[in-house]
Amino acid sequence: MKSPRLAWAITGSGHYITECLDFILSLDRVDLYISQAGEEVLKMYGIDIQEIRKKMPVYRDKAASAPPVGLFYKDYYHTFVMAPTTSNTIAKCVLGIADSLVTNLYSQAGKCRIENIVYPCDIAPAMETTAPSGKVMVYPRKIDLEATAKIREFEYTQVVESVDELILAVQQRLQTIS
Question: Are strands 127-131 and 134-138 parallel, antiparallel or unpaired?
Answer without folding.
Answer: antiparallel
